[in-house]
Amino acid sequence: MLRTITAAAALFALAVPALAGDKTDPRCSQYGEGFMYSPDTGMCIKVSGELRADYGIRSQAGFGKQTGFGSSVKGQIDARGETGLGPFRAVIEPAARKY
């Protein structure tokens, strides 16, 4: 559970600049909304994600009622740009789940 919370905090820290405004950098407008230009890499990057927490109760014959918390975190980092060989795209989608 602690690793899930840590991963969510790290993802949120990466996404904070994107949350500051839903503006797209003019250099990245051809890729869609939310892409920001990174001068260090020369690429257009978009960071997004989702954090979910659940509480559930379930009954099974012979086992009685079971209750518990669950959580999941999903993220996506999408980098796009042009290279000497043509268009480049890399997508990373980390996910963690604890039930």
UniProtKB/TrEMBL annotation:
Keywords, in A-Z order: Cell outer membrane, Ion transport, Membrane, Porin, Signal, Transmembrane, Transmembrane beta strand, Transport
Predominant location category: membrane
Organism: Labrys miyagiensis
Family in the record: Belongs to the alphaproteobacteria porin family.
Membrane topology: Multi-pass membrane protein
UniProt function note: Forms passive diffusion pores that allow small molecular weight hydrophilic materials across the outer membrane.
Domain commentary: Consists of 16-stranded beta-barrel sheets, with large surface-exposed loops, that form a transmembrane pore at the center of each barrel. The pore is partially ocluded by a peptide loop that folds into the pore lumen.
Highest taxon of the lineage: Bacteria
Family matches, as Pfam families: Porin_2
N-terminal signal peptide: 1-20
Coiled coil location: none
Protein's name in the database: Porin
Localization annotation: Cell outer membrane
